[in-house]
Amino acid sequence: MSRVSVPCHVKGTVALQVGDVRTSQGRPGVLVIDVTFPSVAPFELQEIMFKNYYTAFLTIRVRQHTSTHTPAKWVTCLRDYCLMPDPHSEEGAQEYVSLFKHQMLCDMGKVLELRLILRQPSPLWLSFTVEELQIYQQGPKDLGIWFQVSPTLPASGQYAFALQSPSVTFPKWLSHPVPCDQPAPLLEGLPDPSRVSSEVQQMWALTEMIRASHTSTRIGRFDMEAPGAISLQLGVNALCALKLRLPLGLPTPSSDPPGGGETYLSRAWTTSPSVPGRVVASVRRLHQLRATMQWAGSMMSRLRSCLQALPSALRRSLSSAQDVLRRTPLYDFHLAHGGKMVAFAGWNLPVQYRDSHVDSHLHTRRHCSLFDVSHMLQTKIFGHDRVKLMESLVVGDIAELKPNQGTLSLFTNEAGGILDDLIVTNTSEGHLYVVSNAGCWEKDLTLMQDKVRELQNMGSDVGLEVMDNALLALQGPGHLVIGSLGPGPTAAQVLQAGVADDLRKLPFMTSAVMEVFGVSGCRVTRCGYTGEDGVEISVLAAEAVRLATALLENPEVKLAGLAARDSLRLEAGLCLYGNDIDEHTTPVEGSLSWTLGKRRRAAMDFPGASVIVPQLKGKVQRRRVGLMCEGAPVRAHDPILSTEGTVLGAVTSGCPSPCLRKNVAMGYVPYEYSRPGTLLLVEVRRKQQMAMVSKMPFVPTNYYTLK
């Protein structure tokens, strides 16, 4: 361990060069920096500890001076952290929050909650905020760190402490911590940074800016504010602009010939025996950069003006976007219940409510949750030739469906690609009830309407009606125990209290029209997108709020949003169209061969049959598989590699599993690598970590079937 002590004063700035910090075994070590405020208040910024090379390990501790010294005690804290969404996927608009174990040093007498970037103050005895911090490697032997601290004390002004390598190159943000395997033990009061778990490293590398503002943007900025001073500004976003001021300590002539400032400074500094030679060299380098920085400062000033105008522009853009987004009949209901609204597939929908994503996910698995899925396309296909129409578009055996029985099926094209997945129910009222994805609304509707016109021109009796109903999904079992939570009601038990029909006679993928909590004409289908027992209720739009309110009167029922719905379906091994399946994926490649009706396979009379059926008899080139992954959470588009490092495919969906407390994903690999138990690698932010092909679902499903 290395230790450096630096005195600081109001509005003071300290620059310091430190060497490569390593243990005797050659592993990255810990640097401890003491900074005191001797002339202002009896407070001490006691320790700043970080792991060399990366922003992977950081603890900041502040202690108040007292007459008696009490030995510090250390505890392990548990906190929620926000995982940075993947901006390259549809999931990027969603906020994923997961619970991880985080080892943090805390003085039990004055417990602090300081994180990598902290926006709220610490306890009242010292209003202390670490506003920004950066750690970077500069060459093979130099290590740099800078941060800005703002305590609110009787003496006004900011404290700015800077430690950086005196190099021509300015620092860059690092977001790829070195992964380690084991959690960090407490060793002599300090965690061993070489054994910090990869989960902890990933959390520390993320910022609270994502939670604070979805419009945050980081840039590096430097310019000359005044003669003899340099300003380095990082972390510019829609909320704040943080500035680090590096005064050079000497007056600079108002006009210098080229090199004049350097000569002046060199003369002045070298005449002072108290100034170390390396400081003189540092100042020289800084002044050599002056002209370049002035130009850069001018350019960045323009950028700053643009950034300052960004929030209002974003608000206008977002406001405009909100105006064109479609709203479900429950939009105001969501806002009244604390729904956080986001854009999804052209709709304004709740991503989550007041509970965290993880809490909402686990509540669904253990108790009962209510989802608004009214954005999905609901259509009614009627007429004598309704089955003929549907079987000309999908791969399923629709003719074999019994009254009020449904099935999951697929729209396919002539190349065998999947156009969308949908549920088709053969109702006892003489029509087909079809539910398909909101993201394919226009494509699906056009496909069906074109086929209706084609058949009508041929004399067929068939028609199509778009239903304007709302759609509510009530999901959750009562017998699956997670953690120490007690049993709760199933979705069926909640619903049974409001219907006269016996739901025990309504098995998975069957449907019935009934009165639900006084709302007549509701079509209740026993299905869902979570892997749990549950129902989807199609209800008149005007009655949606009334029905949702009645369901929420049960205290065990909570509202859930898109974030929980996505992680629930991934644990259940269910596909998200556009991510896991698309028009370039066949049902066999997507591990959805079971959707192909036996009669349809034999007749080869569905779109793409000439491509799909031969794949059933031979090996396809690739298959969709489940993956259990170590290390950091895996997201869509992350590469999948063989253990030899050959790229095999890509992840299509991934997230930390709240139930399993492991990272799960699905993606496509060559057929020969699709066997469960096969060891692979996934690459997350240029770091490779182990993964194993796993059977799906990851969490057992609880669909209700008649015994």
Distance between the terminal alpha carbons, to the nearest Å? 66 Å
Give the averaged pLDDT, no decimals: 67
Radius of gyration: 31 Å
Low-confidence stretches: 1-276, 316-322, 478-486
Order of strands across the widest beta sheet?
25-26-27-24-18-28
- Number of helical segments? 14
Give me the count of strands.
34
Hey, roughly how much beta strand do the residues contain? 25-35%
**Helix fraction by DSSP (H/I, runs of at least 4):** 10-25%
Structural class: alpha+beta
Indicate how many domains the architecture comprises.
Answer: 4
Overall morphology: globular
What oligomeric state is this?
single chain
Instruction: Sketch the major β-sheet.
Output: 6 strands, mixed
Organism: Eschrichtius robustus
Subcellular location: Mitochondrion
Main location: mitochondrion
Domain Aminomethyltransferase C-terminal: 622-699
Topology:
Blueprint: E1 2-7, E2 30-36, E3 43-51, E4 58-64, E5 77-83, E6 96-102, E7 127-138, E8 142-152, E9 159-163, E10 186-187, E11 190-191, H1 198-205, H2 209-212, E12 220-226, E13 229-234, E14 242-247, H3 260-270, H4 277-288, H5 290-324, E15 326-327, H6 331-336, E16 340-344, E17 347-352, H7 357-366, E18 368-372, E19 377-382, H8 386-391, E20 405-412, E21 418-426, E22 431-436, H9 441-457, E23 463-466, E24 470-475, H10 491-496, E25 511-516, E26 519-525, E27 534-539, H11 544-552, E28 557-559, H12 562-571, H13 598-603, H14 609-617, E29 622-629, E30 639-641, E31 647-657, E32 662-670, E33 679-684, E34 687-694
Protein name: Aminomethyltransferase, mitochondrial
GO molecular function: aminomethyltransferase activity; transaminase activity
Pfam families: GCV_T (PF01571), GCV_T_C (PF08669)
